[in-house]
Structures
1.
Amino acid sequence: MRRVLMLHYYFPPLGGMGSVRVVKIASQLPQVGWMPMVVSPRSGPDVYDPSLVAPEACVVRTAQLRLRRAGAGLVPPAVARAPGRGHPAAGVRALVHRWLYRPDPQIGWYPFALRAARRALREHPADAIFSSSCPITAHLVARALHRETRLPWIAEFRDLWTDASPHDGRRLEAVVALERALIRQATGVVTVSDTWMDLFQSRGARRVWTLTNGFDPREFAAEIAPRRLTATYVGTYYPDRQDMHTAIAALGALARERPYSSLTLRFVGELPPALPAALATHGLGARVDYTGFVPHTDCVREMMASTVLLVPGPVTDERPELRGNIAGKTFECLATRRPILFVGAPDSDAARLLRPFARVRIVAPGDVEGAKAALRSILADPAPPSGEDLEPFTHRALAARLARILSTACTDQRDSVW
């Protein structure tokens, strides 16, 4: 059996969709001929999810230097306690962060991950290296190992980096140069949509493959009776690139009609701070529930207990960084076989992925009347259709695709002239 060394900062017990993706695919790799060895930090500052279980026999846990704590020692107490952006001290804080966080706040993991990975490769020689971002620090570790060992290296970008960079001027030039260097020096690049695949190819990657997010069918096997007229949104909302207002306006209008008077809007996670005003405007303020953070298994149950799931897509398909953005929860929403209202650009990758499914309604941003008609259609016949093929989006299918990618990278590396 071949072996792959995997650099993953976000790995159980750390939560989030990136962590779910990694552990689910890694756990399936041995079934398709690849044994993973994951290097990951022992702890982190992020949310822990007790429902995510890692195969500890295949994980190397490391320490890390917490730069947030180290940076606190460089900032005078009065500055650290100062208010936000409007305060002069905010500039001092920003300068310290700018100096320390290169390329990202997880750079303190680099020396520990590199040392642990070198030891793991000595004890268990590998055939390939796989790193996943964010953080970009994982790619820096993988690149160092790639240079030392000449093993093929696949760099996965679950999200774009420089396209969403908050920097400008010379700092932006530096991060763009680093991104271009990483994707050109890697044996190959993996990303999550076809548009982003094209984007990385245009930036000089040798080979690029699409490996979408997915779902574990075992988590959706039990049937759960939906709550009465519950529209549910799961995950983080990004108001600068997604549209929830169209769905809120449509739901508010429906809730005033007698057949839908019991309708409830449920957020699995925190209530996005950008939305309370819109909810109040459309009469939904008293009809909203939110759960706060819930473990992944509870999140699945919440989706299964919904009448309809809301999936906001990108507000435009004119910019490739938005057109190629497919929310990770989209695939788990499909796995519930519940009706879905998708509000997003109709030519985005997410819309094209969802269009073949009969229980999905696709509405353009701002089309409130179209969203109302779609919701009426969904609520009139919420029974899921049978026979839809979701197998390509299961984690076992994605693991098989990753195995083929790794094997191809090994062949490419062997045939390369160094």
2.
Amino acid sequence: MAETTFPVRLRNTRTEAGMSIRTLAAAAMLGPSAIVNYERDASSPSIEICYRLAVALRVSPAWLAYGSGPRLVPDLSRGH
């Protein structure tokens, strides 16, 4: 079960990352108005856009979209 709604997860994650709406929009290749609409729950992103937002915020796409699974993506660059 999701701990919060998508708009709340998006806004909280963005602010915790210290990103402005404009910064997140640029990182996800979106317009700032799209971020505002997602955070206000005025519209919902497609799966592709949700993925781009998650990558920009460095969180799991499944967690951002649905609130399921771990929030953070494992650091695969370190190898084993």
3.
Amino acid sequence: MKLRPSVRRFAEDMERALRVHDEDRGPRGWAKDSREALFARLGMEVDELRNAIKGSFMSLEQRNYERRKETADVGNFAMMIHDLSRP
């Protein structure tokens, strides 16, 4: 399956964010977390994304960086729940 350019860019940002924690948690460090704990973290990341979207005190460049970072974090926590829901 060929990924759409926007999906590929999003996935690459998600992967970059995950790799930051590989040394301390391992490549599937979320496997030991409960879905409920991950869902709570997802909610926290959604709040951070909301703040980044509002971020009128930041420059446009900084707002766009924060939005990309926070959307990747939201995507990662959703992915983790998805991963734990597989057979």
4.
Amino acid sequence: MRIFVLGTGSTGSYLAHLLARQGHQVTCGDRDLDRARRFLGKKTAIPAVQVNARNLWSIVRAARGSQLLVNASAAVFNEIVLRAALRIRAHYLDLSAHLTRNPFKAEQLRFDERFREKNRCAVITAGAAPGLTNLLAARAASLMDSVDAVHIRLYESTESDDPVSQWSAEVSFDEAVSLPRIVREGRFRFGKRFGEREKFRFPPPIGEANVVLAAQDEVGTIPHFLKLKEMDVKIGGNEIDRLRRWYRQGKLSRSRGLIASRFPNTPTPRQVARLIRRGKLQNARFAAAVVVRGVKQERPIEVRCDAIFPSLFQIRQRGLALSPISYATAQMAALFIKHFPRDSAGVFPPGAIPLENRQAILRDLRSRGIRVTMKVTRKKVLEEDEFE
């Protein structure tokens, strides 16, 4: 396919390289070409053009002739890029939602009818979390007759002397100052920022960690395709602990704005390699767990799926210099593109794409260094004695 990747930061640049290796004809677009080339690398043959993601016609001119338009830039541009894809009659894929028009429903879903009319497919929030987490929730739900609850738990930790962002500064800040979205008793609600603290046990080598409510995109898609009563997303690790401490100290609010010292820009591969060599960046980890509870044959059932992604140390052993989150997100997006449902029309979150495509993506995970385990627990029903 001819693919245009808009946004050439840590994730977008690595995704472009993965797609080129898959045999696609890839072009990248970014507002800052010097920055894009630093992320892509000096020796790359992947072309990069200057694009203003805020301008529809700038995207249309740059991406014209592409068969797939990928938005790897900030989610705030989703709707502009979706309209550009429709203009050039291209398929579409993005990595996250912005959730501003409706805080409980991904804005991309509004374009479903327009993509059906053009006979084109849009796969949205197709990264690791969201993305793989949606696939695992759908896989677990398929084992049940009905679903009561979906709980997603994430772990993000960086062992470094100074703050090193695994996400872009804008994404990290937006998540930190946004209210968590939850489902309680079948209704959407806002949770308390960094609230509902609990202990959760992740697989080794992470182990037990405190997790708190976070503003994640899964709540904007999963409940619209899966009937459930309860849902929330919580995050643990030293990065969320640091944000929680700043929040309690009154140093974290939208009115204060993004402070560069607290939300640094994502380091380029060369900068990551330099930090590792100097011993300032020792390691980083990223993991996801999806716990789904429901009923099967009138008996309570719980399905837990754990996804362990390569650590920074393991990624460095592969000759790469990027964070576990960038690695996981780009690898998952590449798999969604490898098994893209081109024969479908409309807008699809990961859990709603055709079953055969979902199964193919999950089968390919191990080849990308992503390990997923599943545990099914069937609980006994306590029967009350009857007395006359």
